[in-house]
Design brief:
The protein is an alpha/beta fold and 549 residues long. The chain is built from 12 helices and 20 strands. The protein has an 8-stranded parallel beta barrel, surrounded by 4 helices. Strands 4, 6, 7, 9, 12 and 14 form a 6-stranded antiparallel β-sheet that branches. A 5-stranded antiparallel β-sheet has the order 5-8-13-10-11, with no helix packed on it. Helix 9 links the parallel strand 16 and strand 17.
Length: 549
């Protein structure tokens, strides 16, 4: 997939699974575990469905918008097999939060509609994570700036018309068709606005453009600017600072009502004469008004000021998400992967694993650096206040192979409860492989059940390419091992988690070709359906486990 559902592989247990039907050269069976059901052999006439194999809980898959929208076999598999889906990326912070801190639900809403029309419930994922964040925005909250009150834009409200301080252009290159005129019938500031009617977008983003004269009265080199404008008209507008090169290109999704949009751009040292430019690459009618450009200067913030800014952004995102989807999304991963690996404890920038981008870069941002031990408590409080009817979960990985991490997570859950936080359940991801030991699976479910909370398997897959080889073709034995381990995981869940606590199970993907584990450098086949969405042995074993067979 173009966008992986996860940033890194979660390491599972290294011991060879003892209860699988495997080659005689592998380790002996673990006599402490029950003998698993023999791997079933699927047939082409198998008409079973996952959602038809159980009652009283959810069975889901992780999905993405591009595939649900364009791949009919993918969408048909989802619709025919499950009663719940989790979005792989579309509800994550970096997919929703724009550079000005506003929330853009366009893609998430489109995917929600596709899933709702397919008759499947949407599980919310996620509200607090450390990666796939919009660090462009979050970093502005910790650096601090003083903003000049001087507007550097020239004729930014078009009170002198659009022929003064503005260059407008509609390319003659076919099929471009648009008009740019002065509009005195609607304005956000003063009496005029610029009206752009795009009948047919051009072949380039700059085919239809309006360019302001260069900034006056400011030294541009290396300077940071806050640029804001008002717009109305459903569609999208691209804002660029143009000089010797283009800087800070930002696409804003606009609506039919007047609304303000803004971004912050730092120019390179060799830029001396920047200009505000608007590009119009989407059909529609737009009005632009009240363009403001302010220079900014950095100012030192105290840790308390940084924490207050981050807390406000944290609250805004969680509240915005839960409010927007109230009544539609009935359960959320509120806190995701907050526990560190190794000896565990909360994940922070100071104990992050090697290979992960530094805090504030590459989409990585640690809320715990600013909100500390109460990060999870705040997240659950904000979510519950925004939607009191939603079920709220904490979610993490490697709980079947790292008992210290499991115990630390359970301790955090109890701490949240002691402090008055509302938490309904725990999700265990279970990104496992055919080398995962079954004893850890059983022990994990026993401990999770003891919390009394709802328990879900949230991101289940069973990897075959355990060595991450660049050239890998699974054997029939490995497919058999995979099917047996799927069966074991689900049977253990149903055995060790009381019925009233069984929320459900989600497999992290639909077909093998779509899996986050299947990459060009390390191919894998970890799911229930193959690359053509045909049922695998793993599918039949899961159906049998769900039926208690």
């Amino acid at each position: 997939m173009n966008t992986p559902m996860k940033k890194k592989l979660k390491l599972s247990g290294v011991a060879v699974i003892a209860a699988l039907v495997i080659l005689s050269s592998c380790s002996k069976k673990d006599s402490s575990n029950p003998t698993p059901t023999p791997t079933p052999t699927p047939t082409t006439t198998d008409t079973s469905t996952l959602k038809g194999s159980f009652t009283g809980m959810f069975f889901g898959m992780a999905v993405t918008y591009s595939l649900m929208n364009t791949n009919t076999a993918y969408a048909a598999t989802v619709k025919g097999q499950v009663n719940q889906v989790t979005f792989g990326n579309e509800m994550k912070y970096g997919s929703i939060v724009q550079n000005d801190g506003s929330l853009n639900f366009t893609t998430a809403d489109a995917l929600y509609t596709l899933c709702a029309n397919a008759g499947v419930q949407v599980y919310g994922h996620n509200l607090c994570w450390y990666t796939q964040q919009n660090t462009n925005y979050l970093n502005t909250l910790t650096t601090g700036n003083t903003v000049s009150t001087v507007n550097l834009a020239l004729n930014g409200s078009f009170e002198s018309g659009i022929g003064t301080n503005w260059f407008t252009q509609v390319s003659t290159t076919a099929p471009t068709s648009a008009t740019i005129t002065l509009d005195n019938t609607t304005a956000e500031d003063g009496a005029n606005s610029m009206k752009v009617v795009v009948t047919t977008p051009g072949p380039n983003t700059y085919s239809i453009q309006a360019v302001n004269d260069a900034f006056a009265g400011a030294s541009a080199a290396g300077q940071t600017y806050k640029v804001s404008f008002w717009a109305k008209g459903a569609g999208s507008v691209i804002l660029v600072l143009q000089g010797t090169q283009y800087e800070g290109a930002t696409t804003f999704t606009t609506t039919s009502a007047w609304a303000q949009y803004s971004t912050t751009v730092t120019l390179p040292a060799n830029e001396t004469a920047p200009q505000v430019r608007f590009n119009f690459g989407a059909a529609g009618t737009y009005n632009i008004d009240n363009i403001v450009v302010n220079s900014t200067a950095p100012v030192a913030l105290t840790q308390a000021q940084k924490a207050a800014n981050i807390d406000a952004a944290f609250n805004s995102y969680i509240t915005g998400m839960c409010t927007h989807y109230a009544g539609k999304v009935k359960a959320w991963d509120v806190v995701n992967e907050i526990m560190n690996d190794g000896a565990s404890g909360l994940r922070t920038s100071s104990n992050t694993n090697s290979g992960v981008a530094a805090a504030g870069t590459g989409g990585v941002f640690y809320w715990t650096d600013y909100l500390g031990r109460n990060t999870a408590l705040k997240a659950f409080n904000y979510a519950h206040a925004a939607d009191p009817n939603a079920l709220l979960f904490i979610n993490d990985y490697n709980l079947e192979s790292n008992s210290v991490k499991l115990d630390s997570l359970i301790a955090l859950v109890k701490e949240i409860q002691t402090k008055g936080g509302h938490i309904d359940g725990i999700g265990t991801q279970m990104h496992i492989s055919i080398n995962t030991t079954t004893s850890g699976i059983d022990a994990m479910f026993v401990k999770l059940a003891a919390t009394g909370l709802k328990i879900r398997i949230s991101e289940l897959d069973v990897a075959l390419n355990t060595s991450k080889a660049a050239s890998f073709t699974p054997s029939s034995i490995q497919y058999s091992q995979q099917a047996t381990l799927y069966h074991y995981a689900i049977a253990s869940y149903k055995t060790n988690i009381p019925k009233a606590q069984q929320y459900g199970i989600t497999v992290w993907g639909v077909g093998d070709a779509d899996s986050w584990l299947n990459t060009s450098s390390s191919p894998d086949f970890p799911l229930l359906f193959d690359v053509n969405y045909a049922k695998k042995a793993a599918f039949t074993s899961v159906v049998q486990a769900l039926k208690g067979q």
